[in-house]
Amino acid sequence: MESKERLQKAIAKSGYTSRRKAENLITEGRVKVNKKKVTELGTKVGPNDQIEVDGIPIEKEEPIYILLYKPRGVISSVSDDRGRKVVGDLISAEIEERLFPVGRLDYDTSGLILLTNDGEFSQKLIHPKYKINKVYIAKIKGIPSKEDMRQLKKGVESDGEFLKCVNSRILKTDFKKRNSIIELTLQEGKNRQVRRMLESLGYQVDKLKRERFGPLTLGNLNPGEYRELTPHEVKQLVDLAEKNVK
Ligand code: URA
Question: Which residues on neighbouring strands pair with residue 172, listed in sequence order?
Answer without folding.
Answer: 181
